[in-house]
Design brief:
The complex is a heterodimer. By secondary structure, chain A is an all-beta fold. Helix content of chain A is 0%, strand content 57%. Helices cover 0% and strands 53% of the residues of chain B. Classes of the chains: A mainly beta, B mainly beta.
């Protein structure tokens, strides 16, 4: 069974700071996705990572994938309040997407 | 990406009643749709895979007689929670995979069910 672990689960950070969220998974996969969820809302697709070494950037967020280490990172640069949300990574098992537990990010002034 | 719409956005019902949630793929013909459930402050759990014109595939532990899924057309899948109980209260989200090469899922707005 594919297991997906995110850490940290909760993160409070000041505006302007940098931080990284980690996503580890237990079995081989070369497809990994990052989603954002605002309170009471559904999921919004952020990044699709489809190969080892893939790196995608959008604004203050950058995601990378190391399939050999079974690790993906979501790096936040110079955080702003608008980034406060829950971030999920999801790994394609070949049958369905398995989601991590999510990282609740709160960016404070 | 694909545009997915769910209805209703939220519903409150009495214990023992049945509730139907619709999921529509507005700009894409989806032979497969996925139904997820999310409890407060938890992750998404796949309930079932809805297949157009055939029976849904349920995940282990999901009662198929309680959560009826119908995928009668390429743009509509429905989830009916039968004889709902308070423990069925949750956020139900459907999704479609438009990208055959990417496997990326696009999610509906979600339907929040509260069973009294």
């Amino acid at each position: 069974e594919l297991k997906v672990e995110q850490n940290p689960l909760f993160l409070s950070m000041q505006e302007g700071k940098n931080y990284t969220i980690y996503c580890n998974y237990s079995t081989t996969s070369d497809r990994l996705y990052w989603y954002r969820q605002d309170p009471g809302k559904s999921l919004e697709s952020l990044f699709v990572l489809l190969s080892n070494g893939a790196v995608k950037q959008e604004g203050r967020l950058m995601a990378s994938l190391d399939t050999k280490a079974r690790l993906s990172t979501l790096h936040i640069t110079a955080a702003v309040h608008d980034l406060s949300a829950t971030y999920f990574c999801a790994v394609d098992s070949g049958y369905a997407l398995n989601f991590g537990k999510g990282t609740s990010l709160l960016v404070t002034p | 990406g694909a545009v997915v719409s769910q209805h209703p956005s939220w519903v409150i019902c009495k214990s023992g009643t049945s509730v139907k949630i619709e999921c529509r793929s507005l700009d894409f013909q989806a032979t497969t749709m996925f139904w997820y459930r999310q409890f407060p402050k938890q992750s998404l759990m796949l309930m079932a895979t809805s297949n157009e014109g055939s029976k849904a595939t349920y995940e282990q532990g999901v009662e198929k007689d309680k959560f009826l899924i119908n995928h009668a057309s390429l743009t509509l899948s429905t989830l009916t929670v039968t004889s709902a109980h308070p423990e069925d209260s949750s956020f139900y989200i459907c999704s479609v995979s438009q990208g055959a090469n990417t496997g990326e899922l696009f999610f509906g707005e979600g339907s929040r069910l509260t069973v009294l």
